[in-house]
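Data availability (excerpt). The following record was deposited with the supplementary files.
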Amino acid sequence: MELRKYWAVFWSRRQLFYRVAGGIVLLTLVFAFSATRVYKATTKVLIKTQDVSSSISSVVPSSLGKLDYTTVDNVAGTVRAMISNRDSLNSVIEDLKLRKRSGAPLSPIELLKSGMLDLYFNKTAVRVAQVSDSDVVEVSGFSGDPALAVKISVSLTSKFLEMMANLNREDISKTVDILTKESLRLKNMVEDSEDTLRQYKVNNKAINMDEKATTYTSQLVTTELSLVKMSIEKKEEHPDVRAALEQIAAIKNELKDIPARQIELSRLQRLSSAMQGVYTSLLSDLEKAKVLKAMSITNMRVIEAAQIPASDRNRYIYFPRKKLMLLFALIMGSFLGVISVFFAEYLDDTIKNPRELKEWTGQKVLAAIPLVRDGKPFPPKETSAVFGAVGDLWLSMRIDAKNRGNDRHPGMLTITSYGEKEGKSVIASNLGLLLSKSGLKTLIIDFNLSEPFLSKSYSRTQDKKEVEKGLADFISAARENKADNTPAFRKLDDNLYILPTGITGPQNIQLIKNSPHLLDLLQAARREFDVIVVDSSPLSKSREPFLMAKESDTAILVVEAGKYQLENIRWAIEDLNESGVFIAGAVLNKVS
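Predicted structure:
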């Protein structure tokens, strides 16, 4: 569908668009002006990623009592959950005596509901939100009372900071206790290690193993030299030689044990030194933890306290924001209005223009009669738009007749429709007037037996509800073989006559439709008039139109634009075709 066709659809249903969009805007304005003002007070809290404690202690975790996180999203979710915990909310509700409109205390869940409808009904709420892409969290309080809104925000923030401080103190106290116990344990271990090292040195004379090794080596060399001298002068069995050999063996044994003693001594010294280092570091951390406990440091800071100045309260109105709501209503109303227009068009399968009438029914469009908005379509006038459109209808029928090799115009035609009040009678009366003005002696037969619109409209009696004698009276007289059974053709204008229905009732209608004298009447009318225009009843209401259309040269189907569904129009056409009726075409009436 081209853009201009979309526009045509929209323009044809613009009233629906106006009703939908206007209704939404009107409801929004009523809602905005009837709602009580709700103020918003906000406290901004900064969550710092680093604080003083990180520079004080290198071993004790700096996250003690603080939020440790790697991304902004992590801290946002954590802080929201911590601030909006049930205990804090219940405490705020009790301290400030927060109540619903009914007077019952608010629950924590209800207090956290800060949507438009919730504020409209309860007027009191809190909201915890993160300022996008930052380390700042906003704690907002809502209330119809500006002072109460500030109290809600401040109270909830204070309870959160107090909770964080308590957590901080509790965590550091536990750390101090653990470090104290561990320092005592390590102190005992250091003392035991020092005692072991000292005892080992005493037992193994290992005060200075290097000196001892040097002394033994010097003694060994001296003794060996003495042994060499004695071996020249004395024999091996000499007591001095044997004493020297024994001394050399003893010195070698002593030198042999020195490396093992040296290794064990080094091990004991390293163990003692390591234990002393750990103990010293632990004492340092214990002192730092005691400092942190005394300082009670947290990484939460209030950077902007909630306030609503009395001189500038309007700037803190959160709901209703009339301009924003009006803009939203205009946008949403326009959107829903457009959706409604095209959805209604999608659901609407009625015929609205000549193109659809031809494409969907396969019938030739004889004329498209515009909707008469100003003035009445009846009685027919030569200056009316309906009269001009009926001229096109008759011209189309003459052209079609010539195309079929018939130079003569139809002598009798029946005008019918699927449903009621589609404009058959108006078209029939205008066509009759047109033909009479063209010099053709024309008869209009009102065969709408149950709703004789033309008979009542052309009645000469004062009471338009009364019906003059006509078709019913002729049939009744002919059936009773009365002498006065001349058809009551009444003259309306030059060359224009009408045959009213006469006085009819449920019983008379059945007698008229089934009377053989009806055909005699039609034959007599054909001999007297050039053209006979039959205004019949709707096809959906009775079988009368099929009877008259079968006796006519052709039939015209009137379709009111946008009134009946396509399947009903198709049913009417198929029924006429199955009855052997020649349909000259269709007239689209009341085209907008």
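Summary of structural features: The CA atoms of residues 455 and 495 lie 18 Å apart.
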